[in-house]
Amino acid sequence: MLSGEKVFEYRLRNEYWKKRLEGRAYNKLTITKGYPKREDKSRRIEVNYCGYVLKTITHPHFGNEPVDVYAIRVAIPIIGRSNE
């Protein structure tokens, strides 16, 4: 993500993510590597939230069949690393 190679983070289009994304406005997005302890700031980055697009993808993480996903934009300018 930091290099700009990864432009989307995918989340399945289900009720869980629908409640968190559709019709909501956010200022920033905090991305973590795994589930770090709160004080482990080296595994967190913050970016401006620029929304999502709806896509249908096939990806091993979701199985062999195409699935509908929220493609959350992540290849965006960093507003600050939490570890700085």
Outline:
Helix content is 8%, strand content 38%. The protein contains one helix and six strands, in the order βαβββββ.
Please count the beta strands (DSSP E, at least 2 residues each).
6
Query: From the helix content, strand content and strand pairing, which structural class follows?
Result: mainly beta
N-to-C order of helices and strands: EHEEEEE
- How many angstroms separate the termini? 17 Å
In what order do the strands lie side by side in the largest sheet? 1-5-4
Strand content: 35-45%
**Radius of gyration, CA atoms, in whole angstroms:** 14 Å
Organism: Rahnella sikkimica
Protein name: RNA-binding protein
How does this model look, in words?
- With 84 residues, the chain is mainly beta.
- It has one domain (8-81).
- The protein is 8% helix and 38% strand.
- The chain contains one helix and six strands.
- It has one helix at residues 15-21, and strands spanning 8-12, 28-32, 44-48, 52-57, 67-73, 78-81.
- The chain has a three-stranded antiparallel sheet, with no helix packed on it. Strands 2-3-6 form a three-stranded antiparallel sheet, with no helix packed on it.
- The longest helix is centred in the N-terminal third of the chain and has 7 residues, at 15-21.
- It is globular and about 40 Å long.
- The two termini are 17 Å apart.
- The mean pLDDT is 84.
- It comes from Rahnella sikkimica.
- This is RNA-binding protein.
